[in-house]
Design brief:
With 185 residues, the chain is α+β, with helices and mostly antiparallel strands. The chain folds into two domains: 2-74, no CATH class; 86-184, Chitinase A, domain 3 (Roll), CATH 3.10.50. The protein is built from five helices and nine strands. Strands 3, 4, 5, 6, 7, 8 and 9 form a seven-stranded antiparallel sheet that branches. A two-stranded antiparallel ribbon has the order 1-2. A hairpin with a 6-residue loop joins strand 1 (24-26) and strand 2. The longest helix is centred in the N-terminal third of the chain and has 19 residues, at 2-20. The protein is globular. The protein starts with a helix and ends with a strand.
Length: 185
């Protein structure tokens, strides 16, 4: 019974947040984009993704990322592995292999919206090999092709896990990415 009450409280909180939020405007890519408020059905669908009784730190991170998406009004989906994503623009179909090399523009930020890296700010796309990027990117880029744009919300098991990468990315840090695949070689 307590679990049901907790679920209803979380759901109510999410509805309250979504009803009080305005459409968001971002200029991360040098383009102003406005996201309309999500419908009530979409907010309910997102709330249903929440784990009502988180058992692990990954479950807690997952819930934190869903709450972040609700706050930002992003209609994310969950993959079978638990990766949260939103394909903003589908690109041209590509045959990906584990050793595919691709050029991409990206912005990576933390749950507090602090940007830890951005190719956009350097005005230069970066080149990556698919088998050398974090698991979140390995999974997500396959859903889009050249010209595709995706938002990725990754728990630490889809990111850097228990490794400390920088002062910003400590062990077990969830990550959020805006990723645009420019070219696949």
């Amino acid at each position: 019974m307590i679990q049901n009450i907790t679920s209803y409280l979380i759901f109510g909180l999410i509805l309250l947040i979504s009803c009080n939020s305005n459409p968001s405007t971002t200029e991360e890519k040098g383009i102003t984009e406005t996201q309309e408020e999500l419908s009530e059905d979409e907010n309910i669908r997102l709330a249903m993704l929440l784990k009502s009784s988180p058992q692990t730190y990954i479950d807690v991170q997952y819930n934190d990322l869903i709450e972040y998406a609700i706050e930002k009004q992003w209609p994310v989906q969950a993959s079978p592995s638990g990766l949260l994503y939103w394909v903003e623009k589908e690109g041209r179909a590509v045959q990906w292999t584990d050793t595919s090399t691709f050029q991409a523009h990206y912005t990576g930020n933390l749950l507090d919206d602090k940007v830890f890296d951005s190719s956009f700010s350097r005005n230069r796309a970066s080149t990556f090999r698919l088998d050398e990027v974090i698991p979140a990117w390995q999974e997500a880029v396959r859903w889009i092709g050249e010209g595709g744009v995706i938002k990725i919300l990754a728990t630490s098991n889809h990111g850097y896990g228990n490794r400390s990468i920088s002062d910003d990315i400590k062990p077990y840090t969830p990550l959020i990415f805006d990723l645009e695949v420019i070219k696949v070689e």
